[in-house]
Amino acid sequence: MAAASPSSDMFDEIVMAEERFHGEGYQEGYAEGSHVGVAEGRRYGSLHGAKIGSEIGCYLGFALTWQCLLQKCTDEKNGKKIRALDSLIGMIQKFPYEDPTYDKLQEDLEKIRGKFKQRHTAF
């Protein structure tokens, strides 16, 4: 078999340049996109987590404040309210703040929101 001439090697390099540049560009873009995606995901997670924490903290503050105010009154009507507040406080205290992989996180959050709305309208 005859050896390839230098001009055909140069021609092959020119023809294959588009494919080579496409591959290199893809690799660079993928690496950059992965890096940016991780940073954006971290920012989004921190922001979303802070919003949920603030919301839960608001609910807990509401429940603890009303619990303190109602403990001075001992009638049956206030007793029911205190038990309902205790239930809400218990749900909030059991909420898994430290485990973002908890599979029922959204369900538990919705239950807490529902219980808060129920208690909020009762006051």
What does this structure look like?
This protein is an all-alpha fold and 123 residues long. 83% of the residues lie in helices and 0% in strands. The chain is built from three helices and no strands. The longest helix has 65 residues. 7% of the residues are buried.
How would you summarize the topology of this molecule?
Elements lengths: L5 H65 L5 H19 L10 H18 L1
Brief description of this entry?
The chain is mainly α. The chain is 83% helix and 0% strand.
Structural class: mainly alpha
Please state roughly what percent of the residues sit in beta strands, choosing from under 5%, 5-15%, 15-25%, 25-35%, 35-45% or over 45%. under 5%
Distance between the termini: 94 Å
Point out poorly predicted stretches. Answer: none
Mean pLDDT score: 84
- The tally of beta strands, per DSSP, is 0
Indicate the radius of gyration in whole angstroms. Answer: 30 Å
Specify the helix fraction band. Answer: over 70%
Main sheet overview? none
Coarse morphology: rod-shaped
Order of helices and strands: HHH
Number of helices: 3
Keywords:
123 residues; mainly alpha; 83% helix; rod-shaped
